[in-house]
Predict the structure.
Amino acid sequence: MILIAESGSTKCDWLFYQGNHCVSETSTAGFNPYFHSEEWMIEQMRFNPQLVEVAKRVRAVYFFGAGCSTPNLKNQVSRSLSKLFTNAEIEVDHDLTAAAYATYQGEPCVSCILGTGSNACFFDGNEVYEEMPSLAFILGDEGSGAYFGKKLLTAYFYRQLPEDMAADFKERYPELTSSTLVEKVYRSERANVFLAGFMRFVVKYKERSVVKKWISEGFDLFLKNQVICYSEAETVPVHFVGSVAKVLESELKQSLMKYDLRLGQIIAKPAEHLAKYVLDYLEPKR
């Protein structure tokens, strides 16, 4: 049995394969070695009975995750996986690589992530190239769930929301004060996930002028900083994975049109598409 895992910061989807057939699937909290310790990751896996049940029978784990961008961070995740999957060969790679593999359709492309965080790369069919670094939710992640969560919270606490939106927010999140907000953002291991958790409220009011402005500016910044930097962007499809790209698909299309960029696929949950690439291209080489 092999496991193929696709992890953002919020959620990790695990697919169980026997040969070329997916026999089961499950999910855990997302793993990000920037924010999570090895012990925390091991604990999350051991909380999942499906992973524990098959652990000894797994011969290979392909794990693609947010934050797995350097050898040190990859090794951190690899060590955690090896504690549970003791008989398996472990392969750990970046979530950008997963986005490239999941969206690949036989031609070079720019592949983007718009979920809890945001990032982009160019994939020529052989190598994944990252032109600009991801600066994460404090300095970067433009157009992501965390980005729009920050916009909403800033506007609410600075009393810049329309009255009805502010009243709805207060009713929905009565326990949230400026003090608890600071605690959640500056002392939590999952601050980016907390911020992205307000996307449902943002989407509810996406037709309001203030929110439309956030969305337009956020996507424009993302495209300027992370996509247009690739000289190939004007001639290849630009693909997207992630929940934010999907729920704001029409708004994303409008932003792409401003820059004469060609939209490729938008895939909310890329795990199955990633698995097909792994089985077709990576597993035969093992």
